[in-house]
Design brief:
heterotrimer; A alpha+beta (783); B alpha+beta (199); C alpha+beta (162); B: 199 residues; 36% helix; globular; C: 162 residues; 5 strands
């Protein structure tokens, strides 16, 4: 790939972000900043019960309050066939409850008033009559004969949603029978929540004069949402405009369609006025798409030398009251089958069962890459358990089993074709940076003195860039993505993509791709996303897919422009195309470099001096169907010290070596890594959305659901190796979720490593001080 | 969320007199802050209501109280109460066993063992707040109970106190008291920690 | 409904006044009555700090104050950081050091850092981390925010900017 100058700012340059200017001045435009004339406010009334029959709703007092314009209930919506809506995964969910409620905080009624305070007052006045029903919160009991059946609307009266299998069951069984060494790990990946700083919300604006519905929406996938609104709401798709303005963090939380959106749209259609609905933080934590809640068992079979022979995985997936997991249709457990990890062995079998419980719906969120976080956590924990069993160093065990670079593209035993990888190199760099040998010596000394120190390693493989049309679609829509580029007469350009940044820096990085391919300085390239009226159709930004899919589309579109530019250059230089050579920013005649035309000259000519047979203008659009997914990877090493008196774990050092192929903007990649590692830290040590036996949410606000501050967060030491993707036009892989995928295992492995000499093999997350202290007490380390 | 609470207090009245009060649900209800009996269904069943205010959050529970067991010889009463918030904010249930024991000098020890279960918005605040609120309510109950037993209570004013309008605890006071108590314990723990460190 | 009250505040150097319900939160007063939407709401328990503003020289979580409590006070919001069309060194620092991604926590971070630097012209990394511990960020992991504040501190020492 040719190098561009820093002034042009193509691939590899850490140019400053173009979007920052408005944010640092407080001039971002988030959904709650949208203020339209005549706008009114909506608020939801929510169920306090996890499972109850809805006997009646009395909205009289609420409606009588001055300033209240409407109170909508499930019964009202049912008249328009909108009380239920389809989820993104073959199920339906209640918009407003009818018949019964299935999780605490479920949406029951929607109040619309002139201002938000009146709406809040009115919501307090809605009286709902419930009859409590027995509650199911333990997913292990979901299929027990005595457990209440939650979904009366389903034909099959069962709490079991799906069973999914992949791999060779009998071959794996044989491998286990023959194996010299076997280990078994039961690990729970606790229910948690992405909690982006901006909660979800919308302003639904139906304009009676034009017949158009404009929805300002916190959406990571505006086009898909527009299509779904059209299909479900029966509104013509050309009359719907979804605008995702600035989004204050997504992390998967803003992929589903929530009842609040639907209610706001219905209210706006009914009242003919803009309706704003923005949820509170408590509503966000208690009712929007949660993450994880996977109860997993992994078994590894190995020979005595430590060569892994087989992996067997069984998982129970708690999906809450509705199956609203937003994932490609052929994958009910997402891309969980990446759980074979970075290791080379022939046999694997994986099965997942999904069940309903009286909890909020969701499952695919928090930078999970479609369940890859669960998978990577499982295999990296299991390998450490195997290392303990074999009494071997966890780094040596990994190195022994790594897929060798010459084996790529590698066929995993669960059906994936890994594009490229060099796990050894990433591991070596991480070991060197952290000073592994020295740390192990230090640990030995500390153990003799009774001090607790641990080193945790995680060598993860990611799978991102969903995905090829032959296997991937969401709600039927194929997972291509798009870029449209138009160059103006004065050589500046505008591009629009089908993705939607929520902080990933797309206004800068896509511009850098154009700069790389066309030599137009990134500063001269405007990037827009999020307005479905103008941007080409795309599936949005999540699962680290923007660079692999839309980034590829951008490169391909730019190359189409370059092809046309060559024709124009040949016309201007009065030579044939074969005589021309390209370097970023200009075409020149082979052997006569002074005879050249810049891309700016060419752009001007595209409007003023058009060659015969060619259309005017200089633009292209590309819809990119990726041939495969991409497989970023890395090695993370975490060093912890444990305070025996309090059980507190201090992260002393964290080295993160990531390989995401060719990098667009190293500064932005580092930022993504810092953020993801901080989320991984939170998950490993602080976070859980728990439920008591009555279905009361225990992590329902920031009082109990903890986010790390700058004080808890350690310094992150980042570095990179580069193994380009052979099938991506830019050799790039995507990286946003890698830190969240790879780090929880690094943290947990470190804590277990600190306590393994006491016989500890595993501790479930979140590893709060009281858990560690309890273990220390049980082991007699403290009295 | 289930919470177990055991409380004991003493009154300077003979056991039979205390029993007369304890075995009368309407009189007992009059001592519980914010509670009242609204209807007697039969000898063992009563309908009632209780208003609980935690900070700005007000919950009006309406429900039923049942006497499960009444043992005049052992001086033990077991009751069960269940209520739902009239606005649909949640529900609460409680089973309570009240025991009396005669003490020297003509006094009586009153022991109550309760299990409380709260479902709904209040339960989200966690057991810490629920138990603090329960403690405060119980303290007020025992104050009222004792006041009813004092010599001046022998007069017909007993009847009128039964029809006194229920006074819910003051708006800010429960939350503030709960917070003060939580903080008080934390402060004590901190003092202890620092005092220990200096040694 | 309680009677409306007149609230007068000097915001970013300008006198502003409005009649509001006494229970109107200061953050809503700033965002909706004054139209300054740079200050954000990120939670409902006073934890996140996205609503941080500077009131009479002190940082305040404007979601935990009522507008009438700010009557007669001086208020500085993120919109008031620029001086004569020039970015404040903190704003420059956030840009230079990639101290923001989605931008939602940024105004609150800027206001907390602003007061931190007023009180402590040469903060250590630990000082900075404690100084912004009332502001939550989900995107950056705080590392570059620390660098941004260090950039600003250095710049302010050179340039004599307040």
């Amino acid at each position: 790939m040719p190098q561009t100058t820093p002034e042009v700012g193509g691939m590899g340059h850490s140019i400053k972000r173009k979007e920052d200017l408005r944010f640092i001045q407080g001039k971002g435009n988030y959904v709650d900043d949208v203020h339209l004339p005549d706008m009114v406010y909506g608020q939801l009334v929510r169920s306090p019960y996890a499972h109850a029959r809805l006997k009646g709703i009395n909205t009289e007092k609420a409606r009588a309050l001055p300033g209240v314009l409407a109170v909508i209930t499930g019964t009202d919506l049912a008249k328009a066939n909108l009380a239920w809506m389809p989820t993104l995964y073959f199920d339906k969910q209640m918009v407003l409850a009818t018949g019964k409620v299935l999780f605490q905080s479920q949406e029951v009624a929607f109040v619309v008033a002139e201002d938000r305070y009146t709406a809040a007052d009115a919501a307090e006045l809605v009286e709902v009559d419930y009859e409590e029903l027995p509650v199911l919160v333990d997913p292990h009991k979901a299929t027990d004969p005595g457990s209440p059946i939650l979904r009366e609307d389903r034909e099959e009266k069962s709490n079991h949603i799906f069973h999914w299998e992949v791999g060779d069951k009998s071959a794996t069984q044989r491998a286990f029978q023959d194996a010299a060494v076997k280990v078994n790990l039961q690990a729970v990946f606790q229910r948690c929540h992405p909690a982006p700083l901006e909660t979800c919300g919308c302003v639904a604006d139906f304009n009676r004069a034009t017949g158009r519905l404009t929805i300002y929406l916190t959406s990571q996938a505006p086009h898909a949402h527009r299509t779904l609104f059209a299909l479900v709401g029966g509104i013509a798709e050309n009359n719907i405009r979804v605008i995702s303005p600035d989004i204050g963090g997504g992390f998967g939380n803003k992929v589903p369609i929530y009842p609040g959106y639907v209610c706001a749209v219905v209210a706006s259609l009914t009242l003919g006025r803009p309706v704003k609905w923005v949820e509170t933080r408590s509503e966000n934590l208690q009712s929007t798409g949660f993450a994880r809640d996977y109860h997993m068992t992994a078994e590894l079979a190995a020979d005595r030398d430590g060569k892994i022979q087989a992996l067997r995985v069984k998982t129970l997936a708690d999906h809450g009251a509705f199956n609203a997991a937003a994932q490609p249709t052929k994958f009910p457990a997402g891309l969980f089958s990446i759980c074979t990890g970075a290791y080379d062995y022939p046999n694997a079998f994986c099965e997942v069962d999904g069940v309903y419980t009286n909890k909020a719906p969701g499952g695919i969120a928090y930078r999970c890459s479609f369940r890859v976080t669960e998978a990577a956590y499982l295999i990296e924990r299991a390998v450490d358990v195997l290392a303990l069993e074999l009494k071997t160093d966890p780094v040596e065990l990994r190195k022994k089993n790594f897929i060798r670079p010459e084996k790529f593209p590698y066929q995993s035993p669960l059906g994936w074709s890994f594009d490229s990888g060099n796990y050894q190199a990433a591991m070596d760099l991480a070991l060197e940076k952290v000073g592994y040998e020295q740390l192990r010596k230090e640990q030995e000394e500390k153990r003799r003195k009774g001090e607790l120190m641990g080193i945790g390693v995680s060598s993860f493989v990611e799978i991102v860039g969903a995905g090829p049309a032959h296997s991937f679609d969401i709600a039927g829509i194929k997972m291509f993505d798009s870029a449209e580029i138009r160059v103006h007469p004065t050589g500046k350009a505008i591009c629009r993509m089908g993705t939607k940044s929520q902080g990933q820096g797309h206004e800068t990085t896509y511009a850098q791709i154009v700069a790389q391919e066309l030599g137009i300085p990134a500063a001269d390239v405007t990037v827009e996303e999020g307005d479905t009226d103008t941007a080409p159709y795309g599936l949005g930004t999540y699962a680290s897919r923007s660079t692999p899919v839309s980034g590829a589309a951008t490169a391909v579109a730019a190359r189409k422009i370059r092809d046309k530019a060559k024709k124009i250059a040949a016309h201007l230089l009065e030579c044939s195309e074969e005589d021309l050579e390209w370097e970023p920013g200009k075409f020149f005649v082979k052997g006569a470099p002074s005879k050249s035309k810049t891309i700016q000259d060419i752009a001007f000519a595209a409007y003023t001096n058009i060659p015969e047979g060619l259309e005017a203008g200089l633009e292209a659009v590309d819809y990119y169907d990726p041939p495969n997914l991409t497989f970023p990877f890395g090695t993370y090493i975490c060093v912890v010290d444990i305070d025996k008196g309090t059980g507190e774990v201090k992260v002393r050092r964290f080295v993160a070596v990531d390989d995401c192929g060719n990098v667009i903007n190293p500064m932005i990649v580092d930022g993504q890594i810092h953020g993801g590692l901080t989320e991984g830290l939170a998950i490993a040590f602080m976070q859980q959305i728990g439920y008591d036996e009555n279905g009361n949410v225990q992590g329902g606000s920031f009082m109990d659901y903890l986010l790390p501050t700058a004080v808890e967060t350690p310094h992150w030491d980042t570095d990179k190796t580069c193994t380009p993707s052979p099938h991506h036009p830019l050799g790039a892989k995507g990286v946003g979720e890698s830190p969240n995928v790879g780090s929880p295992a690094a943290f947990v492995n470190a804590v277990v490593d600190a306590l393994s000499h006491l016989g500890v093999r595993h501790i479930d997350m979140p590893i709060a001080p009281w858990k560690v202290w309890t273990i220390l007490k049980e082991k007699g380390v403290v009295s | 969320m289930a919470l177990g609470i055991e409380k004991t207090f003493q009154v300077s009245q003979p056991i039979e007199k205390v029993w007369a009060l304890l075995s009368d649900p309407e009189k007992v209800a009059s001592c519980v802050p914010g509670a009242r009996i609204t209807e007697k269904v039969d000898d063992k069943t009563y309908k009632g209501s209780i208003t609980v205010k935690v900070g700005p959050s007000l919950t009006d529970y309406k429900g039923e109280v049942q006497i499960l067991r009444l043992d005049a010889q052992k001086h033990e009463i077991e009751i069960q109460g269940k209520g739902q918030d009239v606005r649909g904010r949640g529900s609460a249930s409680m089973t309570m066993t009240g025991k009396l024991a005669a003490l020297n000098g003509g006094a009586t020890q009153v022991t109550s063992i309760s299990e409380i279960n709260v479902v709904g918005i209040l339960a989200q605040m966690g057991s810490r707040v629920i138990s603090e609120v329960s403690n405060i309510m119980f303290d007020k109950f025992s104050q009222n109970f004792q006041a009813l037993l004092e010599p001046s209570a022998d007069q017909p004013v007993l009847a009128s106190s039964a029809v006194k309008p229920p006074q819910p605890i003051e708006p800010g006071s429960i939350a503030w008291q709960a917070v003060k108590q939580l903080f008080g314990r934390w402060l004590q723990a901190m003092k202890h920690l620092f005092a220990g460190g200096k040694a | 409904m309680a009677k409306k009250q007149l609230v007068g505040v000097k915001v970013n150097g300008r006198e502003r006044q409005a009649e509001v319900e006494p229970r109107l939160l200061l953050v809503h007063f700033i965002r909706e009555v004054l139209g300054l939407t740079g200050t954000h709401v990120g939670c409902d328990t006073s934890h996140c700090g996205a609503c941080t503003v500077v009131l009479d020289g002190k940082t305040v979580k404007s979601c935990t104050m009522f507008a009438p409590q700010a009557d007669g006070c001086e208020l500085l919001t993120v919109e008031g950081l620029m001086q004569d069309g020039q970015l404040h060194p903190l704003q420059e620092g956030f840009r230079e050091e990639h101290g923001l991604q989605c931008g939602f926590c940024t105004p609150g971070m800027l206001m907390s850092s602003y007061v931190l630097l007023q009180k402590n012209k040469k903060p250590s990394e630990e000082d900075i981390r404690w100084g912004i511990s009332g502001n939550l960020c989900r995107c950056t992991g705080y590392q570059n925010i620390v660098k941004a504040v260090q950039f600003a501190a250095a710049r302010m020492e050179q340039g004599g900017v307040k």
